[in-house]
Sequence to fold (330 residues):
Amino acid sequence: MFIFRDKTQIIDIGGSQLTAFFESLLHQALLWTGKPYAPGGLPQRLLASAFLSDDAGLLLWSDLTRAPNYYQTEAEAELIQEKADELSSRIEDGTIIMDLGCGDIRKTIPLLQALEKQKKFVSYYAIDLSRKSLENGLRRFESDYHHIQCTGLWGTWDAGLAWSKQMLDARRSRLYLSLGSIFGNDHLEPAIARLRGWAQEALCGSTNSSMLLTMDATTDKDLLHASYNENDGLYERFIRNGFRHTNRILGRTGTRTRTGSADNPVMHRSVLRAKRRVRVHAVGLVLDEGTELDCYENFKYGPTVMHDQFAAAGLHCIEQWKAPKANICK
Ligand SMILES: C[S@@+](CC[C@H](N)C(=O)[O-])C[C@H]1O[C@@H](n2cnc3c(N)ncnc32)[C@H](O)[C@@H]1O
Fold:
């Protein structure tokens, strides 16, 4: 049995030194310093979603997820609230819960409350790229939990996994949370590759390990359009903030934004288009006028595709749920 009464703390697992991480994402996906990036078979210059998650980006994100048309967060939060007791009863004492890309932690709170109510002794690790976001989220825990130890891990989720392997008891059960359409939300090949990596590195050990993964499966394009675009320009500011993040590394460019959906599979993405020829001095690259940068691709895979992903990654699906009001499945 574990008894924790510590105050929450935030451990720097590389969060203060993320420049190399961002540079490598930029060079691989946007600048193509090696070879053209073609995760879906066709080359694309991609602004990796991690760029959207600096402190300013996460504040905008938090506002966006509270906007009336942005159904996803609310629907998912309702689902977790509805299932919190059931989920908690499946979690055994001593479990390590790792919230991968925890954001503002709003959705996880009902699960932690249910664990506390059921007197389950667990260690909760919230992992994110933004220290500010961790500080804001973890403030919610400083109150009255007696059974749950909360720790923030500031850095990437890969660093979080490596840290946990070094620092935490391998015999304890693990539950990984991928909430908010994170894992599985990519072109199929890289989505499966990432899941397979986690299956091998994190889930297939000797411990009783599992992942709770949520995914938006909405394919109604009007709903999608309203969700991302009808929110007083919040979404566009969110995307542009991510682009400014790259400019902090590379220098300024001029772009126009458009957003839209695509079929087969249904996905929503934004595109930044160069309004003029842009020279990226840092790497001697010229992007012609009209060059498009894809940003924030959101694939709307339903249960069948997700089951295929799990199978291809070597994962076994224990249970699946659908959000009470929206088309979201576990
Ligand atoms: C779509 S938000 C989801 C937030 C939260 N899980 C939720 O459902 O509300 C993605 C989160 O993942 C974080 N993130 C993105 N890439 C990351 C990485 N490589 N390592 C750790 N966190 C990451 C972002 O900072 C952001 O908070």
Notes: The chain has a mean pLDDT of 88. The pocket of S-adenosylmethionine is lined by residues 50, 53, 58, 73, 101-103, 107, 127-130, 133, 156-157, 179-180, 182 (CB under 6 Å). The longest strand covers residues 255-262. The two ends are 30 Å apart (CA to CA).
